[in-house]
Structure formats: C-alpha cells, structure tokens
Amino acid sequence: MLSPREAVRTLPSYHPPLAGRDGLRLDFNENTVGCSPRVLERLRQLGPEQLARYPEREPVEAAVADILGIAAAELLLTNGVDEAIHLLCETYLEPGDEALIVVPTYSMYRIYILAAGTQVITVPADKKFVFPDDDLCNRITRRTRLIAIANPNNPTGTVAPAEDLRRIARLAPDAAVLVDEAYFEFYGKSMLETRSEFSNMFVARTFSKAYGLAGLRIGMLVGDADQMRAVRRVSSPYNVNAVALACLPEALGDQAYIQQYVSEVRESRARLERALGASGIQFWPSQANFVLARVGAASSFVELMRRRGILVRDRSSDHGCEGCVRITLGPRAHADRLLTALQETLEEFGMAQGAPQR
Ligand code: PMP
Phi and psi (nearest 5°) for 121? Predict the structure, then answer.
C-alpha cells in the first residue's frame, strides 16, 4: 500500500486560521492597506500573452540584485520566504542531521526541517525573549547543518544582535545559517552586507509584509554564489509566477510608498506599546509590524476583539507565550480602530488597570 515517507507520516500539520477573516486583519502581519498603486496599475496592464508564457525569472532577478547591490548569482527569487526555507532544507539536510531553531519562532522552520527527516533542536529563549546566543552556540555540533533565525523574530518582535549572528556563522561553518529578514523594513537593520563575509550565511526577505503582496507569493534568498548554484538546482525554474514577476519592479520602485507605510506602522507600534504599558499589560518591545502582549485568557480576548471587528492572533500555545496574543499594526487610522477596540475589550475583560474610568 502506498505510504508517505516516515518523516511525512509523523509531520505535524500547520493550519493557520485563515477562514472567515472578516474585519480589520491584524492577525497575520500583513500590510493592512495593500500594495503601492503602481503595482495595481501594472496588474491592470497584464494581458493574455503574459499569462500564456512561462515566467522568466532571470531578468527580474538581475534587476533586483542591482537594486540590492549584489551579484545576480547571489540572489534567487522565491515563492515567498516559505519556499526559501524549504529550498535550504532540501539542499542541505539529510536524515541524521540536526537543525537548530530558537523558540518561540516562525512555525514553518520546524515543518520543513522535519519533512527532510532531520532532527529539530530547539533552543528556548528566556522570559524576556532575549536572543539566546550562548545557548544556541553550545548546541552546535558536527551534525548541525541548518540554523534558522528570524530577525526580527515572529511572534516576539525581538531581534538578534549582528555580532551574535556573525559568531554563529563562524562557529557553524558546516551549517547553512539562515537570517530570515521577513520584517526587515520595520527594523531597518540587515545582515545583507555582512552576509558576503560568510559562505554559509543566507538572508531571506519577503514582499508579503511591508510591500503588501502576501497573495502574490514572492520573496528572495541571498547567499554565496556557489551555494546558491546548489539551491537553484532544487528549485523549479518557474517557482515565481508571471504576475508576481511583472509586479515586483513596480513594488520595489515605489520606495516612497514603503517608507510612508513603515513610518506610520512604527508610530502605531509605539502607540500600542504605550497603551499596553498604561494598562499594565506585559508586552515585548517590538522591531516588527506586530506586538506580542500577555493579555491572560487569549482565546476570549481574541473573540472579544473579533466582535469589535478586529482580528488578532492567539499565540498562547507557542513556547513561553502563555496568555499571549500577537497584534499586527497598520497605519494611523487602523491604530485608532485597534486602540478603541482594545480599550473596550480590556474594560469588558476586567483588566484595564489604570485605564481611565468612564
Ligand atoms: N518568515 C517569517 C519570520 C514570517 O513571519 C513569515 C510569515 N508569517 C514568513 C517567513 C513567510 O513569509 P512569506 O509570505 O514570504 O512566505
């Protein structure tokens, strides 16, 4: 009888709660207003010929590499960062190997590592979610073949110092060290330049967050040219669709749009952090477009917010995140709606310590 590989038979399934997302979507770290109008204009110009042809990735790749100031051979456009993670696992992992992740972190690292039949070694962050550099370095062995680090991290919004990331790349020369910069635009610091010092370090970026293109599925992986040659071998030549390829130069070309969006999100993030602080709710200062907050009964909180038209994400089952929700930020008008709903919910919830009485 047909049976999946053992690694797949025992694989946990990851079902993000995507159904029925009516309301202000502050649950998936997406851009809450959408992409640049230049992208929409380009979409409108697409005709049947562009859809009939197989997508040609290389010219867009060369243009993006140029913008980033790297060689085209160092860059692979991918079907979101998810595919970049998957490709690294396919390229470097074998059964019997070990891969290191810090927990809590993004769920798909574990899934793709396990699917490769490789053992996941989890390194827990402390209660403040400070990056556990020493603990992680202590777990590096000769069998370590992948170390995946989200920077900023999801769901905590905390970051790993550049010096820690360099140390890890130095101590694990036989491992692919992935620095996942999905939230780079909201943080502003990158390992892209440093990456070229290390043949085993990779940087991933996405257009799903700040750029508002999660539905197009487009991201990128940057690494040493020789290593990227191997990664390219396991990727489909048509991994990024023609619509995404057509839109990408427009998205990247409208940096004014991104800067404006990012600056509003940062302002919203500061407002939310102030409101949480004033209500005595524990949160972790974030460098991303979301904030993790310990509200207590997370599922009731999510439901009360949903009734007010605001979707937020229950993260209480993540390691160290008991009672926590993750709240995505959008621009000013969305922060206004969020903060009104938050205040009402906290009052209903009976937790608005220090909040003004009505
Ligand atoms: N990495 C991190 C840290 C993320 O939070 C996410 C999305 N939640 C991804 C990667 C996936 O991004 P993409 O949409 O580009 O696949």
Answer: -105, 120
